[in-house]
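Lab notebook, bench 4. Still working through the backlog of constructs that have no structural model yet. Next entry is a single chain of 384 residues. Request: give me the structure tokens for it.
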Amino acid sequence: MDPLGSTLLDLETWAVAHGLPRYRGRQIFDRIHRLLSPDYADARELPAALRDRLAAELPPRRPEIVRRDRAADGSVKFGLRLADGALIEAVYMPGDARTSLANEFTDARAAGREAEGGRREAGSTPAAEKFTVCLSSQTGCAVDCAFCVTGRLGGGRNLTAGEILGQLYAVLADAGRSHEGLRVVFMGMGEPLLNPDGVVLALEILFETLPPRRVTVSTSGITPALARLAALPRRPNLAVSLNAADEATRTRLMPITRTYPLPGLIAAMRAWPLEPRRRILVEYVLIAGVNDSPDDASRLARLLRGIEAKVNVIPLNEDPTYLPEWKRPSEAVIDRFVKTLVDARWPVTVRRSRGPDASAACGQLKGRLQDPRRARMWPRGTRP
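Model written out:
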């Protein structure tokens, strides 16, 4: 039993099964998931004998941080080694009302007014205190999107719920942060909905300490698992990586479209249950000469008609090694694409990616140094 991947009910059941009062299970849960303690040494609410037993039987093992790549904007990409030696990456992004992933569901115009006027509602949290942690759900990605470095490097295994939360807690500890101001996005390595068991369990545990509105799950459109996520009693924000409004272009960019065609994905988005003041985030990676024309924007506006959505335009993060054929559009082309959507009365933001100089931006996470389909993961003598 992994305490990092155990729900409150799991730990209460464990306590009762071991002859303890049920409330001991809640105390253990709170120690691990609310107080973010790395061990039980300071858990004075627990008897000393129980602390020793827990340390022996239910140690909360977090992944080991083996690398930190710091960007000029304050973002940090963490390389983490799991218990079996697998490597994953997570990203810490300090908050900024204009650029942070923490604000992807905020109206761009309202955020702009706040940034210009410097005014907040009484009691609101200052934007500078917000921050985002981007989590991985797999050790690689088999979806193989043509514009994503992670996909270029091939698939990997699913992470357990404990491994997903373990990376979050390791990053929080290293950054000296707690849940206050935290936003979590499942936008790291892997396709979250190809790991529905691990992700759904991690969400159940996470929602005990973090409101669902502060958690976002991004998917390339695994429609059966999307229906499972929609049926949850507490749901995260939904982000859909769309990237094209026609089947041919999307298939070229995202081969997963052959398995889960665009019409079925749009139908699943229409069926997604939205609470008041929530929208689906449509992620659109803008690639020069591929999907960046005004006609592409007009097709996108028509495709999304009737869906409560917000479009997040993401200019391509170039990678000459892994993505030599793709280029970022010019600022003029980006502005023209966005203007077409705005003229069609769609709320739009442009993601100014965090941490590109540390290869920590959208689509840049690797976990591996080389493609395992062609070479060893770690050249001899270079394993960290």
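Notes after review: The chain has a mean pLDDT of 84. The beta strands are 64-70, 76-81, 87-94, 131-134, 182-186, 215-219, 237-241, 280-286, 309-315, 348-350. Flag for follow-up if needed.
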